[in-house]
Amino acid sequence: ITNLVSMDIAANALTAAGASPAMLHCIREIPDFTPRCHAVYINVGTLSEDWLPSMRAAASAGRPWVLDPVAAAASQFRMEACLELLALPPAVVRGNASEILALAARSDSSPTFKGVDSSHDSGEVLQAAKALARSSGTVVAVSGAVDFITDGEQVISASNGVAMMQKITATGCAVTALIAAFVGADPSDALAAAACALAIFGLAGEIGMESAKGPASLRMHLIDALYGLDEQTVTSGVKIALLP
Ligand SMILES: Nc1ncnc2c1ncn2[C@@H]1O[C@H](COP(=O)(O)OP(=O)(O)O)[C@@H](O)[C@H]1O
Ligand SMILES: Cc1ncsc1CCOP(=O)(O)O
Ligand SMILES: [Mg+2]
């Protein structure tokens, strides 16, 4: 269940990576469909009163699930929805630095709020991410120039990617969708799944950037690169480290 802006790029990124996405948000379909998924992805970017009950039901269906709290501080309604969903709890929540900071503070009143974009660097909010992971019992992933992934104790950094990825709308949504696919593939280790998905998506961005002329062609080449990745390219290209 993802926002209307991200549906296309998220479905294409997932399909290129070898997953099999299906998007639906009708409350009457959730009980039949969700138990048959390997993983559920919920993204509040275009939240509505109609969709929230579907999100609740999908998150409660007993499948591993991943939350993208897009613009969590946009409104009181959205913040309360995110906090309610977080309590269900997801295997992973992935947001940009401002979103993770707002969730950790449970606050929708940041003076630096910039909508769906971040006004903080990922490294600035690492302590907030660890605190959020501990209080909610979930893996927290903060994206940015360096992605940090934590369960509240261990912290993994993933340093792949190119700055131009921020100029394509819904790359964050797409990488959270990929995290859900990786969690579906190995629900036993959400920390590793999230770190691998972020590193591999960033690596596809780096490879895509070799042929791109700007954000629109990067979008295309990133998806092509995801499709073309092989084990050798991944193992030699990912920059993942367990922080001391
Ligand atoms: N400055 C950067 N350098 C390299 N990769 C980046 C940079 N900023 C974001 N990314 C990558 O872009 C993707 C989206 O992250 P981000 O822009 O933080 O999310 P959002 O779109 O939700 O704000 C992630 O894979 C992240 O690693
Ligand atoms: C522009 C916009 N508006 C509502 S959702 C959305 C997409 C946000 O995507 P991302 O968080 O990946 O930048
Ligand atoms: Mg986002």
From TrEMBL:
Its cofactor is Mg(2+). Keywords: ATP-binding, Kinase, Magnesium, Metal-binding, Nucleotide-binding, Signal, Thiamine biosynthesis, Transferase. Pathway: Cofactor biosynthesis; thiamine diphosphate biosynthesis; 4-methyl-5-(2-phosphoethyl)-thiazole from 5-(2-hydroxyethyl)-4-methylthiazole: step 1/1. Pfam families: HK. It is an enzyme of class 2 (transferase). It catalyses: 5-(2-hydroxyethyl)-4-methylthiazole + ATP = 4-methyl-5-(2-phosphooxyethyl)-thiazole + ADP + H(+). GO terms for molecular function: ATP binding; hydroxyethylthiazole kinase activity; magnesium ion binding. Its EC number is 2.7.1.50. One of its GO terms (biological process) is thiamine salvage. InterPro entries: Hyethyz_kinase, Ribokinase-like. Belongs to the Thz kinase family. Thiazole kinase involved in thiamine salvage pathway. HAMAP family: Thz_kinase (MF_00228). This is Hydroxyethylthiazole kinase. The lineage of its organism: Eukaryota, Viridiplantae, Streptophyta, Embryophyta, Tracheophyta.
